Amino acid sequence: ALDDWLEREGIARVDGMKLDTQGAELGILCGARGSLGAVRALEVEVSFNAMYEGQALFADADAHLRRSGFV
Question: What is the DSSP-derived secondary structure letter of residue 5?
Fold first, then answer.
């Protein structure tokens, strides 16, 4: 998970995050629960229609980010 990697690397805070991971964005966001609270700028490339097997779509990422306090 992203939070685990940040801790191992000694990174205490993430101010900005850009994700373009070919359909794995929601999984990364879910693994960043602890660090998302400090993020001030977030750019996530998501699709409205599936391009990759098992990928989350815009609505999934939007719902997750809203639950995490983003608007």
Answer: H
